Amino acid sequence: MSTILFYDSGMGGLSTLRETIKRLKGGRFVYFADNANCPYGDKSPQEIEKLVKERLNWLLKRYKAEMVVFACNTITTACINKIRPLYDIDFVGTEPAISLAMKNSFSQHILLLCTRATARQSRVAELIKRSGGKVEVLPLSGLAESIEKNEEEEIWPYIEKICKEIKKYPDIDAIVLGCTHYCFIKDRLESELKTTCYDGNQGVAKQVERLLNKNGQKPCKKLKIKVIVSSGEPKVKKMYQKMVMKIKV
User: Fold this and answer.
1) Which terminus of the chain has a smaller tally of CB atoms within 10 A, N or C?
2) Are both 89 and 206 inside the same structural domain?
3) Is 179 a residue of the active site?
4) pLDDT tens profile 51-89
5) Do 112 and 140 meet the contact criterion of CB atoms below 8 Å apart?
6) Are residues 170 and 109 in the same domain?
7) What is the mean pLDDT of the chain?
8) pLDDT number for residue 1
9) Are 73 and 102 found together in one domain?
10) What does the pLDDT read at residue 247?
């Protein structure tokens, strides 16, 4: 049975893993959170690529995964195309769901929330151009880290900032969550902003399923998830494991 490695800077990718498990109805997964270096969103593409290469080499030697999912928009847009050729396995990336949001937008005017690193990438500019509509980009430096640390008092000012941005453009009728961490406040954002939010998690799940079928592989019927946190802190690992236990097939 196939082992699938999910890689993120922290807990954000658990939202992607959850959608994938829902679709596959099981599976064997290794979830790696590089929380010792979280957030990735304020790092340069060169820093991100170096971190990912080092950690991925160690992970693949140890766990022999048949597929890697970068459950992180920042990693995907910054370096997936440089990482892919180095390994003879399938890679699935997570990109801002700009196309999906635009398809559901009546005004064809949407807002992209993302990290600074994601906002700078040429891949994002390409996705915006391809969408055919108007996309406002709002980089939110620090929000992913505040969500990771569950700092409620730090999260609220970001929501206020997003509200101000929305008021500038009254016709915006869709928001793209361009960071998997943001999915953990999706319900709150939709409630406060009265606007539908879109993320790329379902697209990732579909792609994982497609590649498994293409390769004639079937997910393990019994769900198995191993959690690894780069900080090695028992308290943090326990928190992640509690979150994983809430994921249902």
Assistant:
1) C
2) yes
3) yes
4) 999 999 999 999 989 999 999 999 999 999 999 999 999
5) no
6) yes
7) 95
8) 63
9) no
10) 85
For the record, the structure tokens of 218 come out as 């079937």
Question: Token pair of 44, please?
Answer: 């340069």
- In degrees and rounded to multiples of 5, residue 22 shows phi and psi of -55, -40
- Report yes or no on whether pTM surpasses 0.90: yes
38, 72, 114, 183: which is the annotated catalytic residue? 72
In the annotation, is 220 catalytic? no
How far is 158 from 161, CA to CA, in rounded Å? 5
- Which of 79, 179, 183, 197 does the annotation list as catalytic? 179
Domain containing 26 — which CATH number? 3.40.50.1860
Domain shared by 189 and 114, yes or no: yes
